[in-house]
Amino acid sequence: MDFDDIGSKLANLTMYDVKSLYRSAKNYALNVSDIEAKVDEATNDDPWGASSTLMTEIAQATHNYQDFNEIMPTIYRRFMEKEAREWRQIYKALQLLEYLIKHGSERVVDDARSHLATIKILRNFHYIDEKGKDQGINVRNRAKELADMLGDVDRIRQERRKARSNKSKYTGGGNGEFVPGSGTGRYGGFGSDSYYAGGGAAAGAGSSSGGGGGGGAAARESFEEYDAGDFEETPASKASSSTTRAGASRSSQAPAPAKKEAPKVADLFSFDDDDEPAAPAPAPAAKPAAASSSTNDAFGDDFDDFQAAPAASAPAAPVKASAQPQAASFDFFDSAPAASAKPAAASSLMSPTQSSKPSTPAAAPASRPAAATNTSFNFDDLWASSSGKSSAGGKQKTSMAEMAKNQSSNALFASQTPAAQQQGAWLISFATISSLDIAHQSFYIMAGPKTAQRELIKTTHTVAKVLSSDFGLRSGYEVVDANTRTRPTAASLSSCELIGDNGAATALKAFLAQQDNKPVSPTMRRVAISPESLATIKSGDVVVIELDPSNQLMLVHAVKGQTVSGTRLSLSIDNMLHDVLAANEVFATNETVTTELPSIIAKIDPNSVALRYAWDDKRPAFIGLKEWTTQEAVAAHEIVYHEGDFVLLEPRDNGPLLDVAQVHRIRNQQVLVRYLHRQALPKFKDERLLVPSKELARIDTATFKPVATCRVSLPPSSTSWTTEGFYVSKENAHLLRAECETCTPAQMQRRKIRRNLEVLRSMELMCGAGGLSVGLGLSGACETTFAIDADTDSVKTFKGHHPGATTYCCDAGDALHRAVSGRRAKDGLELPRRGDVDLIAAGPPCQGFSRKNKMATRKAAEDDPRNLLVCTVLGWVEFLKPKYLILENVEGFTASKLGGREQGMVKLVIKCLLDLGYAATCGFVQSGAFGCPQSRGRFVLLAARADVTLPSLPKPTYHFLGKAATSFTWTDGHGTSHAAERPDTAALLPTVTVLDAIDDLPAFDWKDPHLIYAGPDQIEQARQQQDIPQLEVSSGSATGFVAAQYRKRPSNSFQERMRVFAGQMTRAVSQHQTSGPSATDVEQVVNVALRPGADYDSWSQPEVNKPALLGPLQLNRWQDSYFKYERIDGDRYFKVLLTDASAKGSMIHPTQRRLFTVRECARAQGFPDWIEFATDANLKSAYRQIGNAVPVPLAVALGESITAARLKDAERASRQPSQSPITIDDE
């Protein structure tokens, strides 16, 4: 070892060498990718520019889809996450972005244009260093020039052409030099021929903001507007390319004087502190202010030319201003729309309103007109007033508060604290800006340490492609995977195993065999049929038949003589996705057609149509072709029954519950049955216990129409959450006859197959308290092995009842990004990989869709960026490829538009799933119809990989006293409205009421504080005599029992289910507590009359007679629809639980003088008592978790639907063990 050599190296180490070593070690420790490290190096804080070699490497990397999606977010983070004192990094990020626009992939241009608002914000960057030098001028001017270029597509084309033509002229530019091509209009440039790596995404299919795309021809089409004419050199372009622009690198030679048409840009790489900042160029002439318009920049272009600290600036000559009135609204960002292969959507969900006008250069400061009125102010005014200095002329400016007070409702307010001044952090508040529809929000223009930039929604390539090409959304999301999917061909559109030997399967196999591996034609090609060629029609042909009232497509099954039969095919215009599907996509149906051979008028080229799924307009559902070829005929058929079978019959007395009977004897004209009555034990209401009648009943065969068969057995050994079957006591079992000898073996085999089904491994995204996972687990369908949520309390709650699951407290999108790139989660845990998950369950945030959202207007809620978190769920589906997906949300999810399309969110999800190879169905469900004692309508979407059976939405099982589930409706491309079929039979099980759910819990009242009315009252004394505890309430603290014995034994099946844990009954209940409201709220609540449905009106009625309790709330009762103070009826159901326990809502206990406790709300959602909620001292987090959860009984029903679908596949496999499937892959 040469110690002298080592010593020499150490002696020659500079501070920058140490910094470089530190960065390398930091990148290794933080698992930063190579390309991210290169971007960090190019935009570091060193006082010299990045080398041309490094810049060129980054530009070339933008052609790689994965690298592109790491480069662009890193650049944008430089803009928004750096403090003002780190202005060099911001400047160098602008420089790099400009270089990439000229030399990188075309997707860089589109992505940068979608971030134009962010770049424009930097035009107002301000930073004065400790020596009074305005370092912000460099960032301002660079941002202005970049924004101007991005607003001019022709200029972008010219710059990109120039960069290519100059490629051979400039080959260097090492450290300490400007990089050629990095400065707009001042520097030469490196060019790089455009090439297209990766797959073929549609325009803007993916980027850090949705502006990227795939490669190949599709990508060329997406960005051709920026490179129009690239391959033919016009005279103008020749002249442009031959013009050598002066470099701005440091040189010993002084540059020759030149005419100035714009402010001189400071030499960024001369960081001598003694140098004075560049002075503004004199303006040729003063111009009057232009009339304001609704699309003016709220800052005004005056801001762009602020060159130096106010103390150093000379007073400007006053110029009389135009007397035009100020516009009523501003377009703060004044952005040009992102270029797109398709027109931008009318309503952009994720980006601010953009103006179609590009930015125009600002006038020089000397020509800036004086303010027309005292309600207009400029950047100098803001700076002088906020820093306590006088502006030009020595006149003290109006204070910030006074200026804010003088503004109209759309005025722009600004303030700067001393701390913010040191950080260069400007806080801009928008009172109301109508053009952006933003109310009372704040943004940091320059990010200080406390700034939090809104994260882009993370998703994957296929989802981004649908967002961009089908909905016109090109911003607000980030693509985290590479495009590995190839463009589909006609022969690769059905990802399924076709089995079966029926006519449908044979015809479909024949049709697919006719297709080749060429890309699907964009239009459907018809081939005319002559009478002579009719003889060539065969199974598998797609033909046009002439039927009244219109022609139809048919997939031919068989031709016999002059008769042809087959399946009707529907067009995309006939279903709910008519406006996002290709016009030449067709769908199999359940309708069979038989016609004469001469009615065929044309044949369809099989390579010009896509047939991937079947369409069932009754459910509605897109069904996999494998399932379609194996399903039984859907013709209505009667239930087959035998002697000894148990059947369900419509109620004899028009009651709410189905009758249960056993068939004893079948005769020619009559059926003899024994009815089994529903019977409750003296002290226990058992919803499944039946008592056989002693006499047989005779029913005419013609009127004996069973609804379904069912199972009746002896009592189970433990409480079950599933809805399979009834039971009779051993004492009454002798009244029943032996079961059917034909059906019994089949039923036993079915139960055996069910027992042998492997439990699915599930992952719950945005899991919250875990209602979905709990229910799926109790159904026996799934075991949750992974869960993700960003809320700390929710994750703690989830870990409490799923200790064996790997739970991540992080953003689901960030976890997706890490999983796709092969990294661990932030906490070091392994993330799931493909093959680890069989089912994904998710309930994305519903605030943007919920009609119960009181915190935002309807429009603001629809523009909530969290609405697109469903794209992260779909990204996980694409990455993990599970067999099943369960997606739950509020009913308003279906009413939300996207990209200007009605039911846009539903269409987005289903279209993405179809493109990913998943069948899907959706609709509305009422949680109360599945044993939940609460009215809670929900939207549910179920999806299954095309090689397995698609589950159906669960059918209601419980009688519910409230409103039934809404019928899901959709509109086809003809404008015809359709409604999903709803079950019209009576219920299987009795209703669960509020008191059924909670009357076994300990009783207590809030103690009246008598703040308004003196006491005690007679009712208080009476309740004390009834031994009902009167607990004092302390505002901000929980009130009730942390843990207590149950009030009594369980009195019904629901209470029994709530108490059972691991087969044992729990003996105590926890978290039977309320939040601690104010003393006024307590007095108002306890004085609501003790009768069902009583509300605030009872304060003024004789039974209470305390009208002063309404006090200052007189107007609220008319203005606020949630102002109720309602006592719930114990014999009915809970109203919809919200995320806060508000006294003024419908949250008052039916028989006790208080609000519902955490435990009572948990029971309203079906959470068993052994689940405890991690929460704060006042229990607000617990109420929120419960209010956001999926009801457990609903989740149980969804799990049973998944199991029923799996049983079909398992039974089919057991009947066809030796059949060899035909596999058709989609990759």
UniProtKB/TrEMBL annotation:
The active site is at C846. Signal peptide: none annotated. The keyword Methyltransferase applies. It catalyses: a 2'-deoxycytidine in DNA + S-adenosyl-L-methionine = a 5-methyl-2'-deoxycytidine in DNA + S-adenosyl-L-homocysteine + H(+). Residues 27-160 form the ENTH domain. Belongs to the class I-like SAM-binding methyltransferase superfamily. C5-methyltransferase family. This is Cytosine-specific methyltransferase. InterPro entries: C5-Methyltransferase, C5_DNA_meth_AS, C5_MeTfrase, C5_meth_CS, ENTH, ENTH_VHS, SAM-dependent_MTases_sf. GO terms for biological process: methylation; negative regulation of gene expression via chromosomal CpG island methylation. Keywords: Methyltransferase, S-adenosyl-L-methionine, Transferase. It comes from the Eukaryota. GO terms for molecular function: DNA (cytosine-5-)-methyltransferase activity; DNA binding. Residues 1215-1227 have a biased composition (Polar residues). It comes from Kalmanozyma brasiliensis (strain GHG001) (Yeast). Its EC number is 2.1.1.37. Residues 171-182 have a biased composition (Gly residues). Residues 236-257, 306-320 have a biased composition (Low complexity).
